[in-house]
Amino acid sequence: MAHYGRPFRADQVGSYVRPDALMKAREQAARGTITKQDLRALEDTCIRDIVALQEGIGLKCVTDGEFRRGSWNKDFLAGFDNIVERPGNLKVFHRNPDGSPAVQISGWAVTGKIRHSQSIQVDDFKFLKGVAHVTPKTCMPSPTLLHFRGGRQAIDRAAYPDIDQFFADAAATYREEIDALYAAGARYVQLDDTNFAYLCDPDFREAAKAMGEDPPKLVDTYIALVNGAIRQRPKDLLVAIHLCRGNLSTAGAATGGYEVIGPTLFPGLDVDAYFLEYDDERAGGFNPLKDVPKDKFVVLGLITTKRSDLESKDALKRRIEAAAKVVPLERLCLSPQCGFASAASTQGRMTVADEMAKLRLLVETAAEVWGEA
C-alpha cells in the first residue's frame, strides 16, 4: 500500500453536542413549521461556531460536528437509492451499565439496485471547507453497514440473485461519493465502522451465525468491500477507519479484544490509519496492535465520550507509553474513543463545556507526548 500521510497527533472522531436551538429547529422542520432553508441557515451558523471552537482549542483538523445529521449513519445511507431503514435481523443490543439490553441494533434493507444518483455530502463538505482554516475532515459510515445488520435476508433477491454483485455495487457507490468529495477538495476521509469491532464480540458472532452468516468469512468479505470502496483513490487522499463498539448507550454494545480480527484486518485493509476505541476494558490490551503494518498509523481512542468526568493526563501518558511498546510512538496518535454525540438520542450526556474540556486535554497531552504544538 502506498503511504498517503497520517492523522494528526491530536485528532477527533467527528460528532459534537448539538446546540439546543438546532435540535429545536430540526423538530420544527420535521413538523413543517419552518422551511428546509431556515434549518440549513441555522446549521450554517452552528457549524461556523463549532469549527471556531475546534480551531480555538488547537485542533489541526475539524469536522462540521455532524450538525446536519440526526444520526452518524442514517442520514448518509438513506442518500443512496433503494436503501431503507428497517428493524435489523441481528438480534443484539446496546447495553445498559448493568449489562442488560437497552436498544436493539438498528438495521437496513436493500430494496433494489444500489445507485448513487446524487452526491450525499459534497455540498456539506464545501461549506465546511469554506469556513475552516485548518484541514476539514469528512466522516461517513462504512459500507459494511449495508449488509451486517440485515444479512442476506435484507437484500432483495430479485435485484441481487448474486450476492457478489451486491458487494460490487456497494463499493462502486461509495467510490463515486468519495470521488465527488475529492473533486470538491476533500483530502481526509474517515469511515466509521461498527461491524469489525462487533465481530470481536462472541455474542455478535453468534447472532451473525443465527442470521445465516459465517463470522470469519464476513471479516474477509468486509475487508474486500471497504478496499473496493477506496480502490485507486488519489495518492494525496488520507483514509482512516474508526472501529466503533457502539456509542448510543453509556455501556456501549460490543466487547472483545482486537486479537479476534487483528491478524486479518490490520494488514488486510488498505487504509492509512485505524482509530481504535481503548477507553475501557471492553477492547482488551494493546498486544493485537503487533499486526498493524509499519506503513499504517494507530489513533488511540483513550478519552471517553460516554462520561463527562475528565481523564488524568498522567494516566493517558502511561497508556500511550504502553501502546508504544507494541507500535512505535511515531506511528501513534491520540483521540477520543468516539464522537461526542453520535446521534440526537445521545444529547444530554455531556455539555459543550464538558466536550471542550476533553478536547483541551487531548491537545495538551498530544503536545507534551509528541512535542507538536
Describe the structure.
- With 373 residues, the protein is of the alpha/beta class.
- It has a single domain (20-370), classed as TIM Barrel (Alpha-Beta Barrel).
- 37% of the residues lie in helices and 16% in strands.
- The chain is built from twelve helices and twelve strands.
- The protein has helices at 20-31, 36-57, 74-77, 122-131, 145-148, 163-183, 195-198, 202-210, 215-229, 262-268, 313-323, 352-370; strands spanning 61-62, 81-87, 93-95, 101-104, 106-115, 135-136, 138-141, 188-193, 238-243, 273-277, 297-303, 332-336.
- It has a six-stranded parallel sheet with strand order 7-8-9-10-11-12. It has a two-stranded parallel sheet with strand order 1-6.
- The longest helix has 22 residues, at 36-57.
- The two termini are 30 Å apart.
CATH fold description: TIM Barrel
What is the first-to-last residue Cα distance? 30 Å
Q: Which consecutive residue ranges, at least 5 long each, have pLDDT under 50? A: none
Specify the overall morphology.
globular
The CATH C-level name is Alpha Beta
Order of helices and strands: HHEHEEEEHEEHHEHHHEHEEHEH
Helix/strand-derived category reads alpha/beta
Give the radius of gyration: 19 Å
Quaternary state of this entry equals: single chain
Our estimate of the beta-strand percent is: 15-25%
